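Page 42, continued from yesterday. The earlier attempt failed because a stray header line got pasted into the input along with the sequence. Redoing it now with the clean sequence only.
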Amino acid sequence: MVNELHGSRAGSQAAADRVQPDLAELYVTYKSYAFAIAYRMLGTVADAEDIVQDCFAELQQQERDGIVNMKAYLARSVTNRCLNLLQSAHSRRETYIGEWLPEPMSGHADGPEEAAERRELLSFAFLVLLEKLSPVERAVFVLREAFQYEYAEIAGMVGKSESNCRQIFSRVKRTLQREPGQAQPQARAAQRTGLLQRFTAAFAAYDVSGMLELLAEQPVLVSDGGGREVHTILRPMAGKRGVLALLTSRRVLSRMREWEASIEPVNGEEQLVFRQNGTVKGVLCIFAGRGGETIDKLYLILGPEKLGYIADVMQDSHT
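This time it went through. Structure tokens are written below.
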């Protein structure tokens, strides 16, 4: 009888301990982490936010007390949704007018959950490289490289075997290391600020000799096509002569010289933000080559649909 009573009390205690985790608390704790995965997977802020909202909406309908590792559960849920969205997004991006670049994110928007992965694994150059991967390749690489998941965990998230995930990661790692767009370690803050200031001055003054000194031997300039909303450079320009001609032309990108340029954090790095009457009109992400003294890559984003989020965050940070 004593044992039965003890067992009954133990069972009651166990049932009492299985209290549903508070959804609002889970949202505050894991929202930034889920968004960090979704944004790296998709390269767009609005889509990443929608994915996170869908995951928590589903979680609200489930028995949460049985979830042992909430962080891993959300990572899997986010990854599955991103894979589905990327499959359909691929066809849309193929019909996009001009080049498709990821959506920039203000450095002010970094949350505490992203602190460890924020730097080079959030940089705009890193996101551009990820666009070269298939959805599954991107998922495996992001989960392993940016979030240090074990291959066994990744296998369960993407529906592949553990050995297959190892092979995918190794292949992607080798491929990206050979890419000319592979991000280089960025220069010291003071050195980078000086580089951006010199570029801004040379660009505003159509200074051919000044710009020539700033460009690396084989620079590349890529501008987001802007869809049907803006007119810009539709194809990437590679080589010093061509990039120099574009950056010092009095016809191409001339309206940008009417905008106010400022150096602000974008995707964890100092970049150039262009405003007209306080409204963000463009973002220019510049990356230096080895040594940090010359410019190797330039990514120009002018499409309004890519600037809405960063404009809102930066406006809030300035008020």
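Notes: Strands lie at 215-223, 237-238, 260-266, 269-276, 279-288, 295-301.
Reminder to self: strip header lines before submitting.
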